[in-house]
């Protein structure tokens, strides 16, 4: 019997995530490359691994109902893989059951294979639409619990999303968008590449950012501009929050007083996505905006507390000064920067569609711990910017405790800063909320759920 390399690769990824807390988005490409899995088999392995990891909560509830005992961890992971094929993929039931049983027989043993066969046949007796009402709480009495199981999100995350949206109306659409495969979005760094060049490599122009392009298939690393760091993979919302920072008019023309050009700081720059775009704009200007964009001539200092992340920033930028430094204990003098980007460490709840296992790794305690760090970093960011300058506070999370609450708490303790209307600097995009902050959403914009607040340092 020939080995089913795609399913074996997916199973090995799921086991590594479960057993060793591996990151699927880092491990899977390496396994595919090392084992020579390409084309349709690589696409199948990717869908099997990512889809299974996204749906763990739902699949576990169904497996529990179909089992007379708790499966061993390796058997449970195989059952999760089989459940995904039976319930969410167009794999014929006999093939989904048969290949999963073969996998269990190969990796665990014949006795476990018989158990897996019995459980999978029970799972196959109903569709996902029939299973959800059985394993999920009642939608009328417990809507959050029902959505948590139906859309495979932890309950606390569903509650946080509902609070951030301001109600239930869009919640199912958001959760569904989190489970959809995201497009690969590229950025053509101005002065170094162009959207036209990316189009010639098979991409299509982005929806919002003038530097964005979508790659619907293929390996972005094979594109010459990406391989040469003239372009990169970067979510469109990530591009736009960086652009918004460069678009805010400064309160005066003091940039010339300290060296003839603006000074920019990216405080938590690793792994370098926003720093790469800011560095290109600082050097070459906002080439897509014409006379209304930043003309260039700025200098970027990019910092990260971890050396390996700072090294990634150094590799992706061309002209920036890159240092390893703790933003809570600044290595720079206060009040010297015109613009400061603070992409604060956060739970990453806005990028769950790209990191399939992340939703099951986080817990609410992380929000409070990160909130303390976010407040300290925003305080030092405001200390770093000069009067009349501007700070962009960004998180890849819509959780209110990481976004509006952090900004409100910090500004309430200071009399030297005011929040600007971020939406005014993102005219390409509708549906960013009631302001003054801007909130991107996967179901509205097709981007990560990224938050942006723009804050100006007042004059004394």
From TrEMBL:
The keyword ATP-binding does not apply. The active site is at 396 (nucleophile). The keyword Plastid does not apply. It holds the Pfam family Methyltr_RsmB-F. GO terms for biological process: regulation of DNA-templated transcription; RNA methylation. GO terms for molecular function: RNA binding; RNA methyltransferase activity. Residues 157-458 form the SAM-dependent MTase RsmB/NOP-type domain. Keywords: Methyltransferase, RNA-binding, S-adenosyl-L-methionine, Transferase. S-adenosyl-L-methionine binds at residues 268-274, 292, 326, 343. InterPro entries: MeTrfase_RsmB-F_NOP2_cat, MeTrfase_RsmB-F_NOP2_dom, NusB-like_sf, NusB_RsmB_TIM44, RCMT, SAM-dependent_MTases_sf. Belongs to the class I-like SAM-binding methyltransferase superfamily. RsmB/NOP family. PANTHER family: NOP2 YEAST -RELATED NOL1/NOP2/FMU SUN DOMAIN-CONTAINING (PTHR22807), RIBOSOMAL RNA SMALL SUBUNIT METHYLTRANSFERASE B-RELATED (PTHR22807:SF53). May act as RNA methyltransferase. This is 16S rRNA (Cytosine967-C5)-methyltransferase. It comes from Nonomuraea wenchangensis.
């Amino acid at each position: 019997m020939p080995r089913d390399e795609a399913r074996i690769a997916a199973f090995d990824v799921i086991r590594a995530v479960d057993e060793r807390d591996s990151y699927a988005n880092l491990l899977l490409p390496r396994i595919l490359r090392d084992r020579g899995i390409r084309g349709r088999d690589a696409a199948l392995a990717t869908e099997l691994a990512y889809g299974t990891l996204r749906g763990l909560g739902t699949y576990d509830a169904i497996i529990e109902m179909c089992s007379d005992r708790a499966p061993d961890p390796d058997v449970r992971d195989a059952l999760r893989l089989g459940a995904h094929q039976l319930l969410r993929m167009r794999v014929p039931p006999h093939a989904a059951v048969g290949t999963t049983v073969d996998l269990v027989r190969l990796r665990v043993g014949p006795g476990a294979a018989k158990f897996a066969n019995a459980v999978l046949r029970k799972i196959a007796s109903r569709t996902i639409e029939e299973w959800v009402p059985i394993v999920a709480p009642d939608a009328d009495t417990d809507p959050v619990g029902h959505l948590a199981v139906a859309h495979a999100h932890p309950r606390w995350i569903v509650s946080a999303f509902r609070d951030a949206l301001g109600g239930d109306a869009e919640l199912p659409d958001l959760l569904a968008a989190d489970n959809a495969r995201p497009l690969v979005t590229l950025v053509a760094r101005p002065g170094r590449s162009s959207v036209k060049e990316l189009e010639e490599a098979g991409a299509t122009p982005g929806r919002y950012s003038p530097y964005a392009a979508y790659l619907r298939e293929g390996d972005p690393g094979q594109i010459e501009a990406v391989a040469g760091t003239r372009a990169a993979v970067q979510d469109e919302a990530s591009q736009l929050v960086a652009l918004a920072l460069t678009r805010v008019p400064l309160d005066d023309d003091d940039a010339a007083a300290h060296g003839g050009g603006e000074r920019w700081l990216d405080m938590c720059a690793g792994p370098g996505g926003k720093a790469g775009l800011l560095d290109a704009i600082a050097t070459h200007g906002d080439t897509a905006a014409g006379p209304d964009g930043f003309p260039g001539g700025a200098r970027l200092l990019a910092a990260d507390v971890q050396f390996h992340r700072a090294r990634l920033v150094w590799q992706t930028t061309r002209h920036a000064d890159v240092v390893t430094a703790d933003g809570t204990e600044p290595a720079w003098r206060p009040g010297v920067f015109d613009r400061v980007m603070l992409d604060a460490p956060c739970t990453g709840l806005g990028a769950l569609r790209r990191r399939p296992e992340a939703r099951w790794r986080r817990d609410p305690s992380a929000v409070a711990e990160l909130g303390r760090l976010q407040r300290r970093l925003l305080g030092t960011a405001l200390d770093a910017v000069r009067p009349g300058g501007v700070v962009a506070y960004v998180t890849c999370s819509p959780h209110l405790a990481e976004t509006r609450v952090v900004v409100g708490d910090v500004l309430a303790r200071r009399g030297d800063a005011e929040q600007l209307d971020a939406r005014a600097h993102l005219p390409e995009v509708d549906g960013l909320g009631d302001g003054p902050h801007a909130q991107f959403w996967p179901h509205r914009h097709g981007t990560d759920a990224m938050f942006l607040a723009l804050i100006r340092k007042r004059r004394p």
